[in-house]
Amino acid sequence: MDHRSRSLAARFTRRAVLGGIAAATLAVGALGTFAGAGPAFAQDKLKVAGVYTVPVEQQWVSRIHKALQAAQQRGEIEYVWAESTANTDYERVMRQYAEAGQQLIVGEVFGVERAARGVAKDYPKTAFLMGSSFKQQEPNFSVFDNYIQEPAYLTGMIAGGMTKSNVIGMVGGFPIPEVNRLMNAFMAGAREVNPNVKFMVSFIGSWFDPPKAKEASFAMIDRGADIMYAERFGVSDAAKERKVLAIGNVIDTQAQYPETVVASALWHMEPSIDRAIKQVKAGSFKAEEYGPYSMMKHGGSSLAPLGSFEGKVPADLVARVQAKQKQILDGAFTVKVDDGEPKSSM
Fold first, then answer.
1. Is 210 within the bounds of a domain?
2. 132 and 214 fall within a common domain
């Protein structure tokens, strides 16, 4: 099966060729597992589907995709996905996967909450793990988001200590809690080491529009920003072209921008995905809040190595960041979760 294909219909056609009653058989299996099927079924590969509104290369979704691919490579699951799914198509795709017998459906439902939760109600024996701004829904709709505010705070400290103009630009997708809390944590970290730092904040109204993010970044750099917070793709490209620095978010892009990206707050979705797979296989999946499994103590997030900026970041700043990271891991310091929309301070 060509998983890179963006045609969901092609995937279902392939399944039909494999056997006329395959979907029905899988559906029965899904019902059995969720209700607590016997050990024999638990040894089979779990059927997992991903439904994404953006390309799997987009940084946020790429973390989910990567974790599911790792489980597939271990032989634990069979994984199919639909990417670049329009909001108006999201419900239909979810239903097709549920009807086809997928036992666990993973995705992000920002903007399609009501429709997605309606699907979950109609398929109570299917497990759903969805990125969401809202609470879980009994009995089978668990939620997650990237609680990576801890490493975001640490990258803010680095940015605050590295800026020479005391102006940092920040370009985000939408001002939703999942984005806001990371930006606010970053800003708090920067202010800890540099009370004089100022911020320019802009949202482009898209999860994937690199040219628009790039243009927004150029405008900030023209106004004096010498470090850019790259919440969206396109920001680091602008920083590279204008020879200023950037701070990465969710993924580490320093290999692509070795002279630009100083540090990144990384998201690791593996703890959440592995937990969900284990629970579905055990017949114990239930509606839960998975967000905390993205925190550093669970291995769900981390501060990327300095890499090409090793030795370029002042030693005293590195020591300060390392001390703060230890306090976070020891529980001596808690990064405040602030979901309010961040505002420019200049």
1. yes
2. no
Output the domain CATH number for residue 16: 3.40.50.2300
**3-state SS, residue 335:** coil
CA atoms lying within 13 Å on the CB side of residue 195 = 0
The backbone torsions φ and ψ at residue 302, rounded to the nearest 5 degrees and listed phi first, read: -165, 165
pTM: 0.82
Q: What is the pLDDT of residues 203-229, one digit of tens each?
A: 999 888 899 999 999 999 999 999 999
Q: Tens of pLDDT along 148-194?
A: 999 999 999 999 999 999 999 999 999 988 899 999 999 999 999 99
Question: Do 191 and 71 share a domain, yes or no?
Answer: no
Helix, strand, or coil (residue 25): helix
- Are 33 and 42 in contact by the 8 Å Cβ rule? The answer is yes
Q: Tell me the residue range of the domain where 236 lies.
A: 149-266+299-330
Sign for the pseudo-dihedral over CA of 135, 147, 89, 65: negative
154 and 245 share a domain? yes
Cα 195 to Cα 86: distance, rounded to the nearest angstrom: 43
For CA atoms 325, 326, 328, 333, the dihedral sign is negative
Helices 87-99 and 8-18: crossing angle in degrees, nearest 10, is: 10
